[in-house]
Amino acid sequence: MTITVIVACSVAIAALLIVIFIIAVWARPSQFRIARAGTIDAPSPLVHANIDDFHRWQAWSPWAKLDPTAKNSYDGPSSGTGAGFGWDGNGKVGAGHMTIVASLPHRITIRLDFFRPFKAQYRGIHHHRGRGADPGDVGDVRACPVHAEGDACCSSIRIS
Predict the structure, then answer these.
(1) Among 36, 49, 88, 154, which has the highest number of CB atoms less than 10 A from its own CB?
(2) Distance CA 79, CA 75 (A)
(3) How, if at all, do strands 155-159 and 37-40 pair?
(4) Which value, to the nearest 10 degrees, does the dihedral of the CA atoms of residues 149, 54, 49, 159 take?
């Protein structure tokens, strides 16, 4: 075999691999789903209050712990529909803004806009379904990202 044939075969194989890669990337769905579960020892109304009021997020959000010196801002009402929270922090938390677009007793919808380190938009739906107001009752809370028109469950947390 000559060098020319070897080079031609190598180029053909490389081109075929590139085409296969492009087709594989193009065929991937634009939505994704991640599921996990946990337990919260609190009644559903308390869980709702802690999700519905961005001022309370600093006490429980893992993102707040990644950059305690992030600049935070609040806008709109203090809680519920229209409440907003912005942040500008280090490379671990970046910058963005959240707005509660709907707040029902067992469902909160949040629009999340990332500005840095990348631009993205996300709509999260938090379901918390307690079995009653008694602190001993057990329920669950789910945080579900929504991409395009479909719900995709992100996480489940048991409330006990």
Answers:
(1) 154
(2) 10
(3) parallel
(4) 70
Quote the tokens at residue 114.
């990332």
Token pair 């075999």 is found at: 1
Contacts of residue 25, Cβ cutoff 8 Å, sequence gap at least 6: none
- State the SS3 of 46-113: HHHHHHHCHHHHHHHCHHHHHCCCCEEEEECCCCCCCCEEEEECCCCCCEEEEEEEEEECCEEEEEEE
Tokens 């001993």 locate to: 136
Give pLDDT tens digits for 57-99.
888 888 888 888 999 999 999 999 999 999 999 988 899 999 9
Helix (H) or strand (E) holding 17: helix 3-27
pTM: 0.62
Q: Which residues pair with 75 in a beta bridge?
A: 84
What is the DSSP track for 31-47? Answer: ------EEEE-S-HHHH
Closest by CA position to 57, among listed 23, 96, 31, 21: 96
Q: Both tokens of residue 10?
A: 């190598």
d(C-alpha 160, C-alpha 136), whole Å: 6
Which of 126, 137, 143, 125 lies closest to 44 in space, CA to CA? 137
